[in-house]
UniProtKB/TrEMBL annotation, chain A:
Descriptive protein name: Carbohydrate ABC transporter permease
Major place of residence: membrane
Family to which this protein belongs: Belongs to the binding-protein-dependent transport system permease family.
Membrane topology: Multi-pass membrane protein
Keyword Coiled coil: no
Species the sequence originates in: Tabrizicola soli
Domain ABC transmembrane type-1 residue range list: 73-266
Taxonomic superkingdom: Bacteria
Record-linked InterPro entries: BP-dep_ABC_trans_perm, MetI-like, MetI-like_sf
Name of one Pfam family that matches: BPD_transp_1
UniProtKB/TrEMBL annotation, chain B:
PROSITE patterns, per the entry: ABC_TRANSPORTER_1, ABC_TRANSPORTER_2
Gene3D superfamilies in the cross-refs: 2.40.50.100, Nucleic acid-binding proteins (2.40.50.140), P-loop containing nucleotide triphosphate hydrolases (3.40.50.300)
Pfam families linked: ABC_tran, TOBE_2
Domain ABC transporter: 2-233
Organism: Tabrizicola soli
Protein name, entry field: ABC transporter ATP-binding protein
Keywords from the named record: ATP-binding, Cell membrane, Membrane, Nucleotide-binding, Translocase, Transport
Superkingdom of the source species: Bacteria
Coiled coil stretches, renumbered: none
Family: Belongs to the ABC transporter superfamily.
GO molecular function: ATP binding
Length: 280, 354
C-alpha cells in the first residue's frame, strides 16, 4: 500500500514536471531549427532529429530579416528595474503607513485607501491608456524611458502596496512598540526593525513587480513610437507573413531567462524562512 | 516617585482606566493585582506612552510626562509575549537599546554580554531568538529591558506564558536582579494573589479600571477595604455572606442564627456582609452543606460547597477527597472574619475571639 502510494506520487510528480518542462525543451529545440525542420517534422525523434542552425539566433542580433535585440533588452531592463525599485520604495512606505496608522478622510478609512490602490489593477489597461497617453504628451515624455518608468511605477505600485500591507499586518505591532521603548522613533523603527524583518515580503513584492514589468506589452506598445522600444514589442516586430518560429523561440528564451534565474534565486531565499521568532 | 493622578482612559463606553490616582516609590517593587481586564495592562501602556489617557497626569519626580512620546520616556517594559528582534542575534538584541541611545558599539556589547551572563544566557549570545526556548526568549527580553537601566521598569505578567517550574525559577532570579537596582521603580502586573503578595514591597489592587486599594501586602491582605478588594486579594476565593445584626444577634442569610456572638456586640443593628476566608470554614459542626467540587493540590484541599443556596469555599491544610454530592457538616470560625457595611466598606474592629 505504501509503495503503491509512493509510486503514484512519483508518477504524478513526473507527469507534472514533463508538463512544465516540455514547452521549454520544445522552445530550445525550435530555436535551432530552420523553416523546413519546423514544418516538416521528424521521422523518428521529434525535437531532436534535425539539422541544427543558428539562423534563429542570428536574427536577434542584426541578422537577415531580423532585429537587434540588445538595445530593447537594455531598455526593458532599465524600465523594469527602475520602475520596480521606485514602486517598491513608495509602495512599502505607503503599506507601512496603512498598516500601522489610522487614516480617515470623511467616510474613507485605511481599508478603502488600500482598495483604491488595488483597484487600479482591476481596470483593464485600455481604460488607462488614453489618460496615460495624454499625460505623457503633456509632460513631453511620450516615447521616452522616463515616461515609461512613470507608467510602470503607477502600474506596479499597487502590487507592492498590496503585498506589503498584508505582510506588515502579519508583523506584530508589539515589535514596533518594543522598538519605541528601546528609543526608536517611528522612522528608525521602520528602518531598523520592521524593514529588516520584512525582507521576505519585499522579495515577493519585488518578484511580482519585476515579472509584471518585464512582461508588459500593452504600455510598452502604446506609449512608444520609434525612439524607445522595449523587448516584448521588438519580439513582436520579428513576426512577418511567415511566422518565424525559430527566431521567436530564440527571443522567448532570451526574454524568459532573467525571470527563470530570478525565480530560482527567490525560491532559495524564501525556503529559508522569514519571521520566525519575533513573538511566540 | 512616579505619580499618576486622575488617569482616565475610555474606549467607547468601556472604561479601561477610571480616575486612577496612585504613586510608585523608588527602589520598591509594586505589584498590580487584578483579574484579566482590570486595567493593569492599560495602566502600564499609559505609563509607557503606548496608550493615551483621556485625562490625568503622569509625572516622574514632578516632571510631567504627558508630552513625551514613547521613545522619549525612560521606561523599560517586558510583556506577556516574548518580543525580541528576530533579525538580530541575542547579543545585538540586548545591545539594541544602548546602541539606539548612542552608546558606542563595544561598550554596548560589553554591557549586553554582562547582562546576558546575569540572566544565564552567557553561552547563547550568537544565537537568534528563534533558536531559543520560550523561557530563554523571555530572559532575552528581560535582559534587554534591564540593560538600559531605565528608572521605571514595567513587567506585565512576564511569566504567564511559561510553564510552572520555569515561572518559579525566573521569578526568583528577577527579584534578585532587581534588588541590585536601588533607585528603580519596578511595577509588576499579576493576576495571581499569592504571587503579588509574595513579590511586592507594595501592592495595588485593581478592578474595573480603578485602583481600589494600595499598601503593603500584609495590610492589604488583612484589611481589604471593600468586598471587591477582598475578592481580588483572596485566593482561594473569600466567602461573602449576607448578615443581619439585631441586638447583638447575628443572622447569616440562609445559613445560621448565631445568638449573641461577640462579633455582633459592637455593631449597630442593620445589614452587613460577612467576609470569611476559606480557611475559616472547618469540617465538623452543626451546619450541613453539599460538596459540589473538590480540588486537591499537593497538601491542600479546596472544597466548593452549597449550603441552602449559599455557595461556600473551604480550605483544608490536608488532603481530603470529599466525594461529589455528599453532605458534610461545617463550622464557621469568625475569629478572623471581616465585616463590611452596607456600601461594601470594611468596618474596622478590634479582633474578636469567640
Amino acid at each position: 500500500m505504501r509503495t503503491l502510494y509512493l509510486a503514484l506520487k512519483y508518477l504524478a510528480v513526473l507527469l507534472w514536471s514533463a508538463f512544465v518542462i516540455f514547452p521549454f525543451l520544445w522552445m530550445i529545440s525550435t530555436s535551432f531549427k530552420t523553416a523546413n525542420a519546423v514544418t516538416g517534422g521528424a521521422k523518428w525523434l521529434p525535437w531532436l532529429q534535425f539539422e541544427p542552425s543558428l539562423s534563429g539566433w542570428q536574427s536577434l542580433f542584426g541578422g537577415v530579416g531580423g532585429i537587434n535585440i540588445l538595445k530593447p533588452y537594455a531598455n526593458s531592463a532599465i524600465v523594469t528595474l527602475s520602475g520596480s525599485a521606485i514602486a517598491l520604495v513608495l509602495g512599502t512606505l505607503a503599506a507601512y503607513g496603512l498598516s500601522r496608522f489610522t487614516f480617515k478622510a470623511g467616510p474613507l478609512k485605511n481599508g478603502d485607501i488600500t482598495f483604491f490602490f488595488i483597484s487600479q489593477r482591476i481596470m483593464p489597461p485600455i481604460v488607462l491608456a488614453i489618460p496615460f497617453f495624454l499625460m505623457l504628451r503633456f509632460l513631453g515624455l511620450l516615447d521616452t524611458l522616463p515616461g515609461l518608468i512613470l507608467i510602470y511605477v503607477a502600474m506596479l505600485m499597487p502590487i507592492a502596496v498590496w503585498v506589503m500591507v498584508d505582510f506588515f499586518n502579519s508583523v506584530p505591532r508589539g515589535l514596533d512598540e518594543m522598538a519605541w521603548m528601546d528609543g526608536c522613533t517611528p522612522v528608525t523603527t521602520f528602518l531598523r526593525v520592521i524593514l529588516p524583518n520584512a525582507l521576505p515580503g519585499l522579495v515577493v513584492a519585488a518578484m511580482f513587480c519585476l515579472i509584471f514589468g518585464w512582461n508588459d506589452f500593452f504600455f510598452a506598445f502604446t506609449m512608444t513610437f520609434t525612439e524607445v522600444q522595449l523587448l516584448p514589442v521588438s519580439i513582436v516586430a520579428l513576426n512577418s507573413s511567415v511566422t518565424p518560429w525559430w527566431s521567436l523561440s530564440a527571443a522567448a528564451i532570451v526574454s524568459v531567462a532573467p525571470l527563470a534565474v530570478l525565480a530560482f534565486v527567490v525560491e532559495r531565499f524564501l525556503s529559508r524562512g522569514g519571521l520566525a521568532g519575533a513573538v511566540r | 516617585m512616579l505619580e499618576l493622578s486622575n488617569l482616565t482612559l475610555a474606549e467607547g463606553r468601556v472604561a479601561h482606566l477610571d480616575d486612577v490616582t496612585v504613586s510608585f516609590r523608588k527602589g520598591r517593587l509594586t505589584t498590580l493585582l487584578g483579574r484579566t481586564g482590570a486595567g493593569k495592562t492599560t495602566l502600564m501602556r499609559a505609563i509607557a506612552g503606548l496608550a493615551e489617557p483621556d485625562r490625568g497626569r503622569i509625572a516622574l519626580d514632578g516632571k510631567d510626562w504627558s508630552r513625551l512620546a514613547p521613545w522619549q520616556r525612560p521606561v523599560a517594559m517586558v510583556t506577556q509575549q516574548f518580543i525580541n528582534y528576530p533579525h538580530l542575534s541575542v547579543l545585538d538584541n540586548v545591545a539594541f537599546p544602548l546602541v539606539r541611545r548612542k552608546v558606542p558599539q563595544d561598550k554596548a556589547h560589553e554591557a549586553a554580554r554582562d547582562m546576558l551572563g546575569r540572566v544565564g544566557l552567557g553561552t547563547m549570545i550568537d544565537r537568534r531568538p528563534s533558536q531559543l526556548s520560550g523561557g530563554q526568549q523571555q530572559r532575552v527580553a528581560i535582559a534587554r529591558a534591564l540593560v538600559k537601566k531605565a528608572p521605571v521598569v514595567l513587567l506585565d505578567e512576564p511569566f504567564v506564558n511559561l510553564d510552572y517550574k520555569l515561572r518559579e525559577g525566573l521569578r526568583e532570579e528577577l527579584v534578585d536582579l532587581l534588588k541590585a537596582e536601588r533607585e528603580t521603580i519596578v511595577i509588576y502586573a499579576s493576576t495571581d494573589p499569592r504571587e503579588a503578595l509574595q513579590m511586592g514591597d507594595d501592592v495595588i489592587l485593581m478592578a474595573e479600571g480603578r485602583a481600589i486599594q494600595s499598601g503593603e501586602p500584609q495590610n492589604v491582605y488583612a484589611r481589604p477595604g471593600t468586598t471587591r478588594a477582598a475578592e481580588v486579594v483572596s485566593d482561594p476565593p473569600i466567602n461573602l455572606i449576607g448578615m443581619e445584626v439585631s441586638g447583638g444577634q447575628l443572622r447569616l442569610d440562609r445559613l445560621a442564627d448565631l445568638p449573641a456572638h461577640a462579633l455582633g456586640r459592637d455593631l449597630p443593628a442593620g445589614r452587613y456582609t460577612l467576609g470569611l476566608r476559606a480557611h475559616s470554614i472547618r469540617q465538623g459542626g452543626d451546619l450541613s452543606a453539599r460538596v459540589s467540587l473538590t480540588e486537591v493540590s499537593g497538601s491542600e484541599t479546596v472544597t466548593h460547597l452549597q449550603a441552602a443556596g449559599q455557595a461556600l469555599v473551604m480550605l483544608e491544610r490536608t488532603v481530603t477527597n470529599h466525594a461529589l454530592g455528599t453532605t458534610i457538616t461545617l463550622s464557621l470560625d469568625l475569629g478572623e472574619a471581616l465585616v463590611f457595611g452596607a456600601q461594601g466598606r470594611l468596618i474596622e474592629k478590634e479582633p474578636v475571639h469567640g
